[in-house]
Amino acid sequence: MTDHIGVGVLTRLVPRELVDEVVISRDRKEQRNGKLPARVMVYFVMALALFYGDGYEEVMRKLVDGLRYMGTWRRGWSVPTPGALCLARQRLGSEVMRDLYERVAVPCTMRSTQGAWVGGRRLMSLDGFGMEAPDSEENAAYFGYAGKKERCTFPFVRLAGLAECGTHAVVAAEIGCKGEGEETLAGRILSSGVIEPGILVMVDAGLYSYRHLRMVLDAGADALFRVGANVHLPIIKWLPDGSYLTYIADSDEKRKASTKIRSGRIRVTDLAGFYARVVEYEVPDRGDGDELIALVTNVLDPNDLNAVDLATAYHERWEVELVVDELKTHQRGPAVILRSRKPDLVKQEVWGMLLTHYAIRDLMREAADQADLDPDRISFVRSLRVVRRQVSNQAAFSPSAARREAR
Fold it and tell me: Residue 156: enclosing H or E segment and its boundaries?
């Protein structure tokens, strides 16, 4: 069984050798050959992320229905019960799926990928979102609920993700527990080592902070952060492209020295901080009227990236909102909650979902590059359907049998 099962085109990024390596490193290797070894369960969790409308047994049937070499083993094998599959998921745990995701989900944008670069920098966006989990006591205690005044019906799993704007591939993610907000999770991503020189990190106003800006700059990357109307940015010098130079002081020092600053005894530039550049522009007919957007960046030279370049780049950040829609509406299904009633299985399920989404997006990126298209021109929904058909119609087959046939 272990030699036969797979998930079709998704195994191109998650080969068996990698699965076995991670399983052994996490000490999840089974002591005896069973019906549901760890390798099989890895692919089963990935398949769960593809077929959210189906039960455990039906998903397992989809994994084995397309096998070309059924042979005599089919007569001795029957689909495991939901209880057996659930116990096998518990034995696998969530860390194996997390390790696989972190090993596989790397930036996949090519230099030729359209809409993915600005000024030689890879466009990446950091954002937060959430998903509902079943209302069990364990999930409620671990994840908590969303909403302060009116509690939501289901426990709320908070997530933060760093995605490539050109490919929509999520290359880093964090799952929170009760009491951890998007700011905490975003900080963990920014300090995880995934931020590096040559990328432009964009965030919305909800995640703006001096600390997050400092993390990006300390990693050698560039930042393009939107700021809210309550953030005071002093104008130090107007620049030729209509942007202006400002100074962003350390928030803690600025708060302590607020009285001295107001009285004029010290200037903001006397505090620890750094010079930044501000680009302001209006988006017409947004909501009740025009919307003013203010962006701050550490790219100070307008000849490197002018105001129009930065505004255009930030427009690409809005496309990352589609990533959440792809995960929650198309891959999982509208108004569908997660399956798992235990926190560790919830995390396992989410890592499997992110891993599967990345595999689909990488496949779309490769197809777009071969066709010389912007990946945005390829439909995620159609790609998802193609992958689902590949899994159920030609799942996988025995490598040993295939090699014999090739010879």
Answer: strand 156-164
- Alpha-carbon gap, residue 9 to 41, rounded angstroms: 17
Q: Round to whole Å and give the CA distance between 230 and 228.
A: 5
Per the CB < 8 A criterion, the answer to whether 163 and 199 are in contact is no
Q: Which of 186, 277, 190, 198 is nearest to 239 (CA)?
A: 277
Q: For CA atoms 9, 10, 15, 19, give the dihedral sign.
A: negative
Give the C-alpha separation, 206 to 226, whole Å: 8
Digit-coded pLDDT (tens) for 136-158? 999 999 999 987 656 678 999 99
- pLDDT, tens digit, for every residue of 32-77? 566 788 988 998 999 999 898 899 999 888 877 644 444 434 455 6
How far the first Cα of the chain sits from its last, in Å, is: 23
Task: Give CA separation, 295 vs 175, 226, 282, 315, in Å.
Answer: 28, 4, 11, 11
Residue 133 has pLDDT above 80, yes or no: yes
Distance CA 207, CA 213 (A): 10
Q: Give the closest residue to 130 by CA, choosing from 75, 69, 174, 188.
A: 174
Q: Which residues of 320-329 are buried (b: 16+ CB within 10 A; e: fewer)?
A: beebbebbbe
Distance of CA 252 to the CA centre of its chain: 31
Quickly count: other Cβ atoms within 10 Å of residue 90's Cβ: 15
60: left (phi over 0), alpha (psi -120 to 50) or beta: alpha
Distances (CA, A) of 160 to 20, 163, 268, 355, 372: 28, 10, 32, 15, 31
